[in-house]
Amino acid sequence: MISVGLWVGALVAGTAAVSYAATQGYWVQMAVAAATCAIFVLLALSNRARLARSGGSEPALAGSTSAWMGLVWAWAGLSMLVTYQLVLSWHEWWQYVLAGVGGAALCLGFSAMMAKDTAAGREDQALLNIARYLTIGQFGGMIIAVIGMVIDGKMPRNPAEPDWAANAVFFFGAVALAIISANALWGPSARRR
Q1: Are residues 72 and 65 in contact, defined by beta-carbon separation less than 8 angstroms?
Q2: pTM for the model
Q3: Where are the domains of the chain?
Q4: Consecutive 10-residue runs of the chain (193 residues): their mean pLDDT?
């Protein structure tokens, strides 16, 4: 399980940091977005490793990983909401906020289901298989997004474009999700009984 206080604190601090950094300019905001995502990745990977070392079940590991993925999605959505409501102007912001919040809701919903299974001491193999396939899809999608943003010239982005702050959030959020997904697929796993 993860600490709700740590999760909420990371979300609030990460959102505030990247939104404030947008007032300081392109390179500062990009550096803060990268650093924030690096912290999220370290939290996610260390939590999964700690759970695996302590004998955590597959549902416990899947739930923890999903909660940290949800943090990245929530941070992306909230960062764009705050940035484009208080700092910058870009008319398409709301679509990406909805995507971030939707991704967060899916991840957190799955995490809650896994927490129930963990508390009950059961493993729903069908649900774990679905989670694995979704994680594979997310990993592939995030790799494609990162490569596509570089190829399309969206990263680094021309600071004259109104979506420059969103692109840094998209890019580093996608990198973070790819790393967390890869760790879920090939990193520490539950010990078989």
Answers
A1: no
A2: 0.93
A3: 4-186
A4: 84 96 95 98 94 89 94 97 94 92 95 89 88 94 96 87 92 98 86 52
